[in-house]
Specification:
- The protein is α+β, with helices and mostly antiparallel strands and 279 residues long.
- The protein folds into three domains: 2-51, no CATH class; 56-181, Roll (CBS-domain); 186-266, Uridine Diphospho-n-acetylenolpyruvylglucosamine Reductase, domain 3.
- 34% of the residues lie in helices and 22% in strands.
- The chain has eleven helices and twelve strands.
- The protein has helices spanning 2-9, 24-33, 40-51, 76-85, 107-114, 121-125, 140-150, 170-178, 186-190, 207-214, 226-234, and strands at residues 62-63, 70-71, 90-95, 97-106, 133-135, 154-158, 164-169, 191-193, 199-202, 243-246, 249-257, 260-266.
- Strand 2, helix 4 and strand 3 (90-95) form a beta-alpha-beta unit.
- Helix 2 packs antiparallel against helix 3.
- The longest helix is centred in the first third of the chain and has 12 residues, at 40-51.
């Protein structure tokens, strides 16, 4: 059915008899061969769908240290400020640390409640949804199916010890297929191209997104973020000013914070002549 649907979008007629199912790689070849026959946007979406079975939830995860949540041990003024300024639709609610999670808060539901009276912790607790946990290593296509079955738009990712490692939403998976829903693109949020062709890059950018923006080919097997890739390569937390070459790209560390590379400058790939000279 998927094969027929994709071929139909490409306006390729096939007989209903003697049609053998196409493998994913064969489907990928059909989509690539359709360049110029279908809009680039649709081609990208089809390739995104085919890639879901290769990607795991950790490829699009919101890492634990980037999760915006509500700690009930904090002052009520701080909690109110976090809710008002949060760019996210769902917020985990916990005590002291996220592993002590109590539930998930839907910000829109909370705003409706505030129209009928002042917000209190007691009222907030009545709005919490039960947390939904999934293991590391779950493939995106399987998780998309689980989201549909359970009617859950979010999931917390845990490791083998039950420690929360991050958060994933239905929106994160859909954006892998159709691109960013927001007006601010990933290129604007994470990278700034310079006049010499180099990029100033946020260390939290995923390697997949970096490759997508720059058309470079940093390794995607291993650490998922640029910061993780640099630290794994150096086997240490780098200092500001440290330079390293990864995948033939010189990288200068510009900012380090909380044991992570906060900002780095990546230069275009070094070219090598026939005499082995780097230029």
């Amino acid at each position: 059915m998927v094969a027929n649907g994709i071929l139909g979008l490409l306006r390729i007629r096939v007989s209903s008899t003697n049609l053998e199912p196409l493998s994913r790689e064969e489907l990928r070849s059909v989509v690539f061969e359709a360049t110029g026959k279908v809009p680039h946007q649709y081609q990208t979406m089809l390739l995104g769908i085919l890639d879901l079975n290769k990607m795991i939830v950790e490829d699009v995860i919101i890492p634990r240290h980037d999760i915006v949540g509500i700690d009930l041990e904090e002052p009520w003024e701080t909690i109110n400020k976090k809710i008002a300024q949060s760019p996210h639709e769902w917020l985990p609610v916990y005590r002291e640390n996220i592993n002590q999670i109590i539930g998930m808060l839907h910000v829109r539901e909370l705003l409706k409640v505030t129209l009928t009276g002042p917000l209190t912790i007691e009222r907030l607790l009545t709005l919490l949804h039960e947390p939904y946990f999934i293991p590391q290593g779950t493939f995106l296509n399987i998780q998309l199916h689980h989201f549909q079955q359970k009617h859950k738009p979010f999931a917390l990712i845990v490791d083998e010890y039950g420690e929360i490692q991050g958060l994933i939403t239905l929106k994160d998976i859909l954006e892998e297929i159709v691109g960013e829903f927001t007006s601010v693109s990933s290129a604007d949020k994470f990278t700034q191209i310079q006049s010499d062709g180099s990029y100033i890059v946020d260390g939290s950018i995923t390697i997949r997104e970096l490759n997508r923006i720059t058309q470079w080919q940093f390794p995607t097997r291993g650490p998922r973020t640029l910061s993780g890739l640099i630290i794994e390569y150096l086997e240490a937390i780098p200092r500001i000013g440290t330079c390293v070459k990864i995948a033939e790209h010189p990288i200068e560390i510009l900012e380090v914070n909380d044991n992570r590379v906060k900002l780095a400058r990546i230069f275009p790939k070094l070219l090598q002549t026939n005499w082995g000279e780097i230029i």
